Amino acid sequence: MKILALAAVAALSMASVAMADPVKGVWKTQVDDGAYAYVNIAPCGAKICGVISRTFNSGGEYKSPNIGKQLVWDMEPSGGKAYRNGKIWQPSTDKIYSSKMDLDGDTLFVKGCIGPFCKKQTWNRVK
C-alpha cells in the first residue's frame, strides 16, 4: 500500500513538472520611456499572465506605482513556444495592445498591436 501511494505521488510530481510552461519565470523588459521592469510570468488558469514585480530607471531600482500591476494577460499557449490572443499594457502610454509572444530559449519576443500600429520588444529571462 505504501509503495502504491509513493508511486502515485511520484507520478503527480512528474506530471506537474511536465506541465510547467517554459515561459514561466521572471523577464526583464526593454527600456521604455527611460525605465524597465521585471515581469513575473505565470499561468493564470489555462492562460498566461504577467505582473510587474520590480522597476528600474537610470538611477537603479525604484518603487514605481506600477509594481503589482498586470502587464500581460489572457495569453494562450498555441503550440511550440508561441503564445497568442493576449493583451499587454504599456505603462508609459497607458495603452492596451492585442499581443503575442514567441519564446526562444531565454529570449521572449513580444509584439503588441492596436489596429495596424504595432510595437515590439525583446525580453530576457532573469536568472
UniProtKB/TrEMBL annotation:
It comes from the Bacteria. Residues 1-20 form the signal peptide. Pfam families: DUF2147. InterPro entries: DUF2147 (IPR019223). Keywords: Signal. Residues 25-125 form the DUF2147 domain. The keyword Signal applies. This is DUF2147 domain-containing protein.
